Amino acid sequence: MTRWGEFEAAEPELAGRIKSILLARKHHTLATLRKDGSPRVSGIEVAFDDGDLVLGMMPASLKLADVRRDARVAVHALSDDPSEEQPGAWKGDVKLAGLLVEQAPSPAAEVDGARFCLDIAEVVLTHLDDMAQQLEIESWHPGRGHVITRRT
Fold first, then answer.
1. Residues 45, 57: Cα–Cα separation, whole Å
2. For residues 137 and 150, what is the distance between their CA atoms, to the nearest angstrom?
3. Which residue from 2, 77, 126, 140 could staple onto 94, CB 3.0 to 4.6 Å apart?
4. CB of 100 within 8 A of CB of 4?
C-alpha cells in the first residue's frame, strides 16, 4: 500500500503544493464505479491523518456501496481561478487515483459511517507554467516517480 506519507517523503515539494490545494477547499469530487460499471460522481471531503489521506462516507450512501463493491476511485480537487491579469498564478487541479482501504471505526467517532484511506496509484497536478504559456502536467506513480509533461 502506498500511503500519503510515502508520497510526501518521496516528493515533499510536489506533495506540499497538492496538499495546499486539497486543504484550501472543503468539498471535492469523488468518482466511483456503480454496480453496472458506469461512473458515479459524488461530493467528498478529505483529511490527513498519521500519514494517510482519509475519506469518510455516510452509512447508507451510494458511494459507500460503490467502494465496498469496487474500491477503485479517483478524487478531483480544484483550486481557485486566478485573475485575468495573473493567469500564471493558477495553482492548478489535483487528481488522485487508487484504491480505498476501509479502516476500523474509531471508538471516539462522533458520527456513524465509514472511514477509508487511499492506497495511491497516481497523483497528478495540472497547472500553468510561470509565464502562463504552457500547461504543465506533473504526475507521480509509485515505483516510477515524478514526471513533468509540458503542452503548448
1. 9
2. 6
3. 77
4. no
Q: Which three cell numbers stand for residue 91?
A: 495553482
Confidence (pTM): 0.90
Cell of 87: 493567469
What mean pLDDT is predicted for residues 133-148?
95
C-alpha grid cell, residue 86: 495573473
Q: What is the pLDDT of residues 78-109, one digit of tens each?
A: 987 777 777 667 789 999 999 999 998 767 66
- Find the helix or strand (DSSP H, E) in which 148 lies: strand 145-151
| Residue among 101, 144, 141, 92 nearest 119 (CA) | 101
Residues facing 94 on adjacent strands: 77, 125
Buried b or exposed e, range 125-135, using 16+ CB within 10 angstroms: bbbbeeeeeee
CA angle 96, 110, 47 (to 5 degrees): 20
Please report, for the chain, the start and end positions of each structural domain, with discontinuous segments joined by +.
4-151
CATH superfamily of the 4-151 domain: Electron Transport, Fmn-binding Protein; Chain A (2.30.110.10)
The 10 Å Cβ neighbour count of residue 73 is 24
